[in-house]
Amino acid sequence: MALNKTKAILAGGVAALALCIGGPASAQQRTFKVPAQDAVSAIPQFARQAGVQIFAPAAQLKGVRTVAIDGQMDLHEALRKLIAGTGLEIAADDGRVITLRVARPASATGDVAAEPTALDTIIVTAQKREEAAQGVPISLTAFSSRAVETYRLETLRDISRLTPGLLVSSFSQSSPTIAIRGATNTFTQIGANKPVAVVIDDLFIPRNSAATFELYGLNSVQVLKGPQGTLFGRNVTGGAIVLDTGKPAFGDTAGSVRIGGGDYDLKQVDGRVDIPVGETVALRLAGSLKQHDGYGKDRLTGREQDDLDSRSLRAQARLRANDDVEVLLGADYAQDHNGGRTLSSKAAGSDGDRRTSELGYNQDFARNQWGASGRVYWNAPVGQVTSVTGYRWSQSGEDYSGTGVGYAFLTGTNTQSVNRDVDDVGLFSQEIRWASPKWERGDLVAGVYFADEDAKRQLRTRGLAAVTGVASSDVLTDQAVKTRSYAAFVDGTVHLPATFDLTLGARYTHDEKTADLVRTDFVRPATGSFTAHGLKADWSEVTPRAVLSWTPREDLKVYGSVTRGYTAGGFNTDAAVISALTQPFEPETVTNYELGVKSQWLADTLRINASVFHMDYKDKQELFFNNLTRVLTITNAGQATVKGAELEVTWRPLPWLNLMANYGLLDTVYDNFVIPGGAVNTGHPLGSSPRNKGALAADVRIPLNGKGYVTGALSWAYTDGYYTGATKDPNLHIDSYALTNLSLGYESQDDRWALTAWAKNLGDVDYLLTPSTQGVLAEYLGEPRTVGVMLSAKF
């Protein structure tokens, strides 16, 4: 499919926080020419010439002048000369971002090695600018590249273990459940949208079947909680998961590679290399291969299930046209396949082993996806102008049994439902935004967005009669929905007296959908088949936000916000009767009221963030069987309320020790949800919303007197019990569980190589991903205990 390539920008604002083009701060010789001047101007100028990103404390820069540097020298040598005498020192350098802080006085002996060092500064783009996460008045959890690697966070499910408010589970391989603060839905129709967005390198992933994949080589993972309808307008009522793969580095060639193995015949290798081409071009190649045998199998067919065979490749080219313009071109490809899920019967046919299934059906899952983008970052005299042009395509196909047992074990009129589900989705998007300079009185971000999505899906469902396996039903739905989305947004901050800031923003979104459906009933063609083409619907919505924040000191921010989000309406393209298709369902909206605090203490070694929130759902989209019309369809069922609180604490008491704890409390309820002629769900909790969720984690890097380091990480994550839907059916309840992960290793003194042994789900806990009541009671378990080793090297 055609892909338009245009340009886009990124540049840094000059203000107290000096931020410029990001790249690893590795040792490299560059030519610097920075005249003596105010630090507030000198640091951004230096960062642009160095090709790195630098953050400095605002208060310390006022009235401070730097010395001139001129000539070719190492980056760190040049930076130390620049800030000599300013009272600043390098606090952290994670290979991509340098953070400066006020220099600490040395002890009487001059030895400060035993003092704890400042916590990592994580750069996020939650407000369409590159900013330190602690400075953003939004509830978010961010993981640096170091944390992703240290805690072996390889999938979104791993991310969710350590993130309060985020739940990632799975109904089947192509239907993951992604919920933020209870905001989710279980719709698989091609005409429906999800309330949680997954975004990679500024590109929205339109279909959940393409949203869960192996994570490797990321610069950061950001989980934005609550409605993000102003700046992330594609149907984001619950939140957004933002994946940033970073940029190639200018300077020396550098890279890393990891090779690992483990039980279940695990084989894993991934790596990344940055290759500079002169001083203005840099290339990056990154790839990953991972295979393991099945965690379960079908004892009737002998086929493995929950195995994995995945491979992926990313390429980037970074071009610096001049000091003010930079272009980043990217492309990626990935494919993976497995033998489907191990849905194990709890009743008929069960052999008592929860890791075997009795389906007697050859399940399979395969997925291919690719993307391409062109981003241009222009540091214009009037501010930062960014253009992001991209295209993402995915195709997935899954054969699976919806019923938890094969037809041979069924009796009477019962049937085994088996499905083939194939989707093909392409999305072209274009965003252009302008970010003003950081003026003395405030700043502003404004932009426009366009998306053109072409989605197709074929779902074939057959009912195999008990004992005989004869097809008693056989229906193919050929679904297609075209979506065009237009948006304009503006978001600005005004600095008020007494260190208060007022942020006001709004986004206007207009969505248009055109749906086609061909339903073929091979058993009852006269009554079950129909065709509908050219069904159209459109919706428009304004989603505002208002934030009042107070920053009494640089490391303390208190904020209150009101934000609104919107999930577009759509068509029930799984409709069994034409009336359920032709009547589109309307959008749902969420308004979130939130109070929060972000703080750092003890010389930036202790971070405490907390928030309380109240969310009001209107016209919540639900799928249910209407007993009066006898139709299963998606309807705007009623109202719901979500309340809760979240706490995140990170502490580095010693240079070699990091501690983390978090907790999320979630109280959800349907205020009004009555199924016509059926159940009353009013008063029930929302699905996928555990009341309590928390985690404890620690990692160490202990020096061995110049002979390297002992490394290790330990995490414990607890998820309270919850229902998977609104019915409060005890058979659809997932009991609480806690998972423990552990790693222990050795790292060389020069940081060139490391060997690590690890274990995930150390206690071998049997925990549920999905219970099933279709035909018989059945269950699908999460991963068992796995162990392995990983050898990593840097060059």
Tally of extended strands?
Answer: 46
Q: What portion of residues belong to β-strands?
A: over 45%
Give the terminus-to-terminus CA distance: 37 Å
Compute the average pLDDT. 90
Which ranges are low-confidence, i.e. pLDDT below 50, for 5 or more consecutive residues?
1-28, 106-113
Q: Biggest sheet: strands, sense, closure? A: 22 strands, antiparallel, barrel
Number of helical regions: 7
* Helical content band: under 10%
Structural class: mainly beta
Q: Can you tell me the overall shape? A: globular
Q: From the alpha-carbon coordinates, what is the Rg to the nearest angstrom? A: 27 Å
Brief write-up:
With 795 residues, the chain is mostly beta strands. The strands form ten sheets. The chain has a 22-stranded antiparallel β-barrel. The chain has a five-stranded mixed sheet with strand order 10-15-16-13-14. The protein has a three-stranded mixed sheet with strand order 3-7-6, with helices on one face.
